[in-house]
Description:
Number of domains of chain A: 2
CATH architecture of the largest domain in chain A: Orthogonal Bundle
Oligomer: homodimer
Strand content of chain A: 15-25%
Amino acid sequence: MKGETKHKVQQMLKSARLRRTKPRSDILTALLKAHQPLTREQIAERIGACAPNKVTIYRALETFVAADIVHKAFVQNRTWYFELSHHCTADQCHPHFCCRCCGRTDCLHELHIPMTADSGGYIIQHQRVQLEGLCPKCSKSA
Amino acid sequence: MKGETKHKVQQMLKSARLRRTKPRSDILTALLKAHQPLTREQIAERIGACAPNKVTIYRALETFVAADIVHKAFVQNRTWYFELSHHCTADQCHPHFCCRCCGRTDCLHELHIPMTADSGGYIIQHQRVQLEGLCPKCSKSA
DNA sequence: TTGTTCTTGCAACTGAGTTGCATTTGATGT
DNA sequence: ACATCAAATGCAACTCAGTTGCAAGAACAA
């Protein structure tokens, strides 16, 4: 299992033609294990003591976004949340729901929002959908 | 026309039950005339010499967002863009397109993206759709 | 007009993200 | 295995959009 994750991560880097370095592997591993979008700080926390410098994390993430293996999912409190794009297809990218009451943000994987079609000469490469409102817990207690 | 805008703005504040102050009126007027999302700085520029303090603008915008007469449209270069919500209905909120080549962001008013239905107990109050790719100009010259 | 409450302005602050540069490291060819 | 070079990393200092606390001013109701 651990070896499987490692192999998966190495494969991601290889197919994106990016150098396989420890910081990059660690960052991708953290994102892979998380199953939810993470901030740069959360990534560092999950890697632990030998986490890369924050500049390194930002630059690695930037590289990953350019290579389209990571997406900038959403902004909350002025900070970006990153996630692996391996769950997104050309057809769909799952939306994120932010609760206006408790502030939690959830991935709504089960909610299918079709990719918007090309319109008037625009070539759409990525679609980001953010939903705001009340989560099940808060809507009940309201 | 000028009087019409002024009246419209006063009406917006009144129906939102907010105090009618000069800074608030000026900010709403700037947004109303703009027909596109603006940053706090752009709002100040458009108001000109007697623009309110930046803290005042931020706080007014925050109040407007809470009253749902203004939307936070999207983030670009770490700064929020605000727009009047009077073009958005319960059915639809127009998406914004950001060109990965030239950086321009356009409102795609003509593109109808239906509001996502309530799903699994989530109460959706606002839907923000951001599209990324190539604008007509950049896709031609590529 | 008066009193209360909300709003504004100023100054100082916060912190996510960036930049420049010296050092290290992965990939490639020999 | 080793040399080479471009690319990646770490550190320190920086940027700047947005925030906070507080005193002074303005809108609204009585």
